[in-house]
Amino acid sequence: MHAPPTDAASGPPPRPQRARGAVRLGFARRDGCTRLADLYQAGSARAMLPRSHAPHPEATLINTAGGLTGGDRFDWRVELAPGTRATLATQTAERVYRSAAGAARVDIALRVGAGAHLDWLGQETILFEGGALERRLLLDLEGDATALIVEPLVFGRAAMGETPDRLFLTDRWSLRRDARPLHEEASRIRPPMTALRGAAALGAARAVATVIYAGHDAGDRLAPARRLLSGDGGPGRDVQAAASAWDGRLVVRMMAGDAAPLRTALKRFLTGFRGLPLPRVWAM
Amino acid sequence: MDSRARHLLLSLFSPAYPVGSFAYSHGLESAIADGAVTCADDLTDWLADVLRHGTGRTDAILLARAARAPETAAEVSALAEALAPSLERHTETMAQGAAFARVTAAVHGTDPGPLAFPAAVGAASAALDLPLGDTVAAYLHAFAANLVSAAVRLVPLGQTDGQAVLASLFPVIDAAAADALQADPDDLGGFAPGADLAAMHHETKTVRLFRT
C-alpha cells in the first residue's frame, strides 16, 4: 500500500468519500497446526497471510482506503477455534483525518476458543486535527483462552509541529470471559485537547498505549512485564510506563512525548513479553 | 430537600462514615512522591482532572445508572469492577463499596450485597429515595475532600490551604455531577492516563502511607 499523499508538509486534506470495509478471519486446528479456515473480505478491508517463519499464522490487516474519515465504517472479525494460536497486526499506522461530518466507525470483534491464544497487535492510530473516531473492541474468551491486546494512540505528529485541538474519540473495549466482564477500557476525548494538558490526564504526552494480557497466569507474568518496562534498556525517561495485574488480567499503560519513543518501548516490551519476534510489519 | 434526606447525605458522605476512605489516595501519594503534585495549585489541577476526565466522571455516571435502575446494580458493579485500571484501584472501589453496603444495610436496612463503590451508593440512594443530583454531588465532594486530606499530609499543605483547594473545586464537582445526570451509555469514559500511571506506580513504591 502506498503511503497517503497527506504526509506532505501541508498536512492532511479532508477525504470526503466514504469507505466501507469488512474482514472476517477464522482459524481452526488441523493436524495439530493452526490453519486459516475462513476468510471473507469486502470493500476497502483486506487480510493477508504472508509466509513467515513464525510457528503459527500471522495475518496482516489492511485498510486500502488510506486512512479514516467521518462516515467510514470498518468491521474486523476474528475467530480462533479451541486450541489454536494466531497473531493479527495492522499493516501500518492508521490515520484518522479531519471529518466533515460524523465519526469514522471501527468495530473489532474477537472470539477466542478454549485453549487458544490470540495476539492482537494494532499499530498506531494517529488522530489529526478535526479527526473523529468511534471504535468498539469486543473480545470474547472461552474457558482458559488467553489474549494479548495492543493499541497505541498518537495525537498529531510532533515532527510536523502539529498539536491537534479538535478531536473526538470514543474508544470502548469490552473483554469478557465466558460472557462475564473481565476488563473494560472507556476512553473518551472531546474538544478541546488543551483540557487534557494536566498531569493526571495527558500532560505533555502526545502518544499513549494500552496493552492488556488476559490469562489465568497474568499475575505470574507481572514481574517479567515490569522488568521489560524499567531498568537497563527500559523505555527511558521520555516514556512513562507501568503495569499492574490482578484477577486474570495484566494492564500496561505507556505515555510518551512522541510516537517514536513510544514505539521503541512498545516493541521492546512486546518482543520480551511474547518471547517471539514481532510480525514483519511491526519491524518497519 | 427534606430534613431526612439532608441528614442521610451528610452522614453517608461524611469522613466519619466507616468505609475506610482515609486509607486510599487514588494514586495521589505516588504523584506527590514523583513530583507531579508539589503545591496547592498542582493539587487543584490534579483533582480537577480526576473529577472531569477520570474516576470522578466515570463513577458519577455509574452511580446515576445504578440509582435510576437499582435492579441493574449488580451489572453496574461488574462494569465498575472491569473498568478498574489497576490492582489498587480495583481494591479501592471494591473495599469501599463493600464497607458502604454493609454499614448502610446495618443502619438503614438497605441491601447488604457487596458492590463496587458507585454501584453500592447508587443502589442505596434509590432504596433511601435520595435526590440523585445531590447524591452524585455529595459523592464527588467526599471523593475530592478525602484526596485533599491525603494531600494535606503528603505534600504537605496547611489545613486551610487544603480547604481552599476543595472550595475552588466546587464548580468542577457540580459540573461533573450535572454531566453525569445527562450522560447516556455511550458517554461513559474519560481520559486520565496520568492518574492511571500514578496508581500503577504506587504498587512498587517502597514507602507508602496509603493503600492506593
Automatic annotation (TrEMBL), chain A:
Subcellular location: Cytoplasm
Molecular function terms from GO: nickel cation binding
A single GO cellular-component term on record: cytoplasm
Alphabetical UniProt keywords: Chaperone, Cytoplasm, Nickel insertion
Main location class: cytoplasm
Subunit comment: UreD, UreF and UreG form a complex that acts as a GTP-hydrolysis-dependent molecular chaperone, activating the urease apoprotein by helping to assemble the nickel containing metallocenter of UreC. The UreE protein probably delivers the nickel.
Family per record: Belongs to the UreD family.
Record's function text: Required for maturation of urease via the functional incorporation of the urease nickel metallocenter.
Matching PANTHER family: UREASE ACCESSORY PROTEIN D (PTHR33643)
Protein name from the UniProt record: Urease accessory protein UreD
Record organism: Halovulum marinum
Source organism phylogeny: Bacteria, Pseudomonadati, Pseudomonadota, Alphaproteobacteria, Rhodobacterales
